[in-house]
Write a structure and sequence with these properties.
single chain, alpha/beta, Rossmann fold, 3-stranded parallel beta sheet, two-stranded antiparallel sheet, 4 helices, 23% strand
Length: 106
Amino acid sequence: MSRVLLITGATGIAEATAIAASAQGDAVFVVSRTEETCRDLCRLLRNADYCVCDLREEREVDAAFDACLRKIPRCGCRVSTSPASADANSETVPCTSARGRLGCHV
């Protein structure tokens, strides 16, 4: 089964990650402040959607998370406790548990 990635950002490293993930069959949900960059990136991807969101605003983060769950309901979440080494310091948790942890990565 393919993974579902919620990626914050639509340019640079985030864009490269989204393209690579999509190329290997993963679904991608992009969250970024600029609709144009979100839309342009999603046009390049096979199974993708987006939500415009300012990650500094908690309500917008909640809305983006809800939008991801509505559009890709089988989404499970991988939560990193250390952005520098996500693979070594991450765990898979139910999405409802992950929501409360997003604040530490904003």
